[in-house]
Amino acid sequence: MTAPASKSSEETGVRDVLTIAGQEYRSRLLVGTGKYRDLEETRRAVEASGAEIVTVAIRRTNIGQNPKEPNLLEILSPKIYTLLPNTAGCYSAEDAVRTCRLARELLDGHDLVKLEVLGDEKTLFPDIPKTLSAAETLVKEGFKVMVYTTDDPVMAKRFEELGCVAVMPLAAPIGSGLGIRNPYNIRLIVENARVPILVDAGVGTASDAAVAMELGCDGVLMNTAIAAARNPVLMAAAMKKAVEAGRDAYLAGRMPRKPYATASSPVDGSFF
């Protein structure tokens, strides 16, 4: 007799969506658009990921500011995807704010942005004081800020209180592929949050994404883990499944950890 197929949270009647700044998304995987061989590979990987939100590095990607160069929007239409302009490569609050303003101008008033202000070229760790300054300015100007930060629970709460619509703690340094280095901190951030928490940076393979979701994160953002894979399109598909599986496992509730064995079949009342 064939065992029944497993069902996702959607199939079991649980309405489970990711809500960011009032907008609902079915996919909890967000993907970047950099580091691919060409725009065609970018398109295929994004499609395979099932992502609905795609990040765009305004300082490095042409979305219309350079008319003579290939335009990312020709393959990833804003009518299909929610674009998330980011401030990658900014090392000052002023540059980050200026980049977000440029993105809003290029995208006809688009106000959802990913803020990152870097403090170190080797690790690409965020400069928290500068990030706080930029976030405060952007929130006052009406931007909906998703902020990249360290895995510090205190700072994560501070960004939430400042008005950021999502907090994005790193799992490990950007592009390192080291996976979740401090799951305890990530869990604390999740438990104390009233806004979506999305792991950003450090994911290397599908199991890392699943772990992030099992910790209770609302989503995962990645770029290098997909783009630097030997087969980016296949890895994108794997990440999609991993995020879904990790989310379902979190909702299902794992069994308690025990220091000793427990028989799979009960022995009480056995005949022998």
Give your account of this protein's structure.
The chain is globular, with a radius of gyration of 20 Å. The model is unreliable at 1-6 (pLDDT under 50). It starts with 17 loop residues before the first strand and ends in a 20-residue tail after the last helix. With 272 residues, it is of the alpha/beta class. The relative contact order is 0.13. The strands form 3 sheets. A 5-stranded parallel sheet has the order 5-4-3-10-9. A 3-stranded parallel sheet has the order 6-7-8. Helix 2 (93-106) runs parallel beside helix 3 (128-140), helix 4 (153-162) packs parallel to helix 5 (183-192) and helix 6 (206-214) packs parallel to helix 8. The chain is built from 8 helices and 10 strands.
Short structural summary:
By secondary structure, this protein is of the alpha/beta class. The chain has helices at residues 39-49, 93-106, 128-140, 153-162, 183-192, 206-214, 224-227, 232-252, and strands spanning 18-20, 23-25, 29-32, 53-57, 82-86, 112-115, 144-149, 166-169, 198-200, 219-222.
